[in-house]
Amino acid sequence: MKKQLKIAIFSGNIPSTSFIERLINGVAEHHKVFLFGIQKKSVKYSSKNIRVYATPNSKWVNVLVTSFRILHLFFKQPKALFRLLEEVKSEKIRYSRFIKLSRCLPILLHKPDILHLQWAKDIAAYGFLKTRFNIPLVVSFRGAHINYTPVVEPKFASVYKELFPCVDAFHGVSHTIVKKASQYDDILSRSIVIYSPTPRFFFNTYKPYQKPKRKLIRVVSVGRNHWKKGYQYAIDALHQLRVKGFDVQYTLIGPERPTEALLFQMHQLNVLEAISFKSQLTQQELLEALQHQDVLLLPSLGEGIANVVLEAMAVGLPVISTDCGGMAEVVKHKETGWLVPMRDAKAIEAAIIDFDNTPEDKLKSMVSNAHEFVKREFDYANNIKKFIELYNTVVK
Predict the structure, then answer these.
(1) Is residue 328, in this structure, part of any structural domain at all?
(2) In which domain, by residue range, is 47 found?
């Protein structure tokens, strides 16, 4: 029987996003999973292999817990404690020193065999655990922290160049994002692409596509309220479609209400009644919502590979996506969906018109191609197996 490794899957928050929670549960079928970070709310895991060593969200509770952990580490590994205290001195603000200390103490107390950072940006705060404490380090590239963080915050470009050479292995959600990250170091020989697995229950609801008889076109986008989601271009396209006489209803799931900029745009274009906003849904609720739409639109300016596109393909919903990040690895134009340029409202408009004009048999074939592609390449069990192989390689 192989030895169980202690894998710290770190996102900073407990619980994490749905796709990281899937990774946690999948890895726990094979190894022990340690969770560190701020515990935002109570969560119960069914697997005994998942152990939570959280930093309390309450300031005063955190002070008490951190004091206890300092004593514990002092008696267990005094040298490690003194090295950690030296490290936190690099923080200029006293409170920042405390925060860094409180978040790193549990990691050193329950020293994992591998620390897997889910967000590349976190290497700035936790990279020293590799360089000073020799904890093997894996870093994931998921989109934003490689695509635009180093542009918006140039200091991270320097951090990546300094610390990427120390990383044992990299995981990318697409080939495109690994290639982009390689500008900071020669990482290709230490990198593996593992697509984010799509939950099995999305595939269970798949039905052969049937084109609706009505004239109304129901378009849906899913994502948080952020400039990179490109909603302004989708709204421009919606306006032009309505000018041309198309009856289109646009639903945005994720943003509970429009930003000030989007609201002003909607007023100017007189499309308020054609657009609705729904707050974030659970995965089961999202599944049901997608089944009442005609086409999913991803108008983004930056993604790794958008999970919602994979989920739409799994349930049998046609997709239109911008050619951002790694989306071209999934959306093959007019084979598995429509791929359009970024920041191009006219291209989005044309794709929706083309979708509306496409015969049912062609749509049925396209949706089937997409479903089979996602089923093959984004299989949960196969992708978890690849992560286990990655961890075993790092330890060896």
Answers:
(1) yes
(2) 6-197+379-395
What angle (nearest 5°) sits at the alpha carbon of residue 282, between those of residues 55 and 339?
110
Domain assignment present for 1: no
CA atoms of 294 and 352, how far apart (whole Å):
10
Measure the CA–CA gap between 70 and 127, rounded to whole angstroms. Answer: 21
Question: Same structural domain for residues 225 and 109?
Answer: no
257: domain CATH number is 3.40.50.2000
- Reported as type and span, the H/E element at residue 164 is none
From first to last of the 396 residues of the chain, give the pLDDT tens digit.
568 999 999 999 999 988 899 999 999 999 999 999 998 888 899 999 999 999 998 999 999 999 999 999 999 999 999 999 999 998 989 999 999 999 999 999 999 999 999 999 999 999 999 999 999 999 999 888 998 899 889 999 999 999 999 999 999 999 999 999 999 999 999 999 999 888 888 888 898 888 888 899 999 999 988 899 999 999 999 999 999 999 999 999 998 889 999 999 999 999 999 999 999 888 888 888 998 999 999 999 988 899 899 999 999 999 999 999 899 999 999 999 999 999 999 999 999 999 999 999 999 999 999 999 999 988 888 899 999 999 999 998
- Whole-model pTM: value is 0.85
Q: How many CB atoms lie within 10 A of CB 396?
A: 5
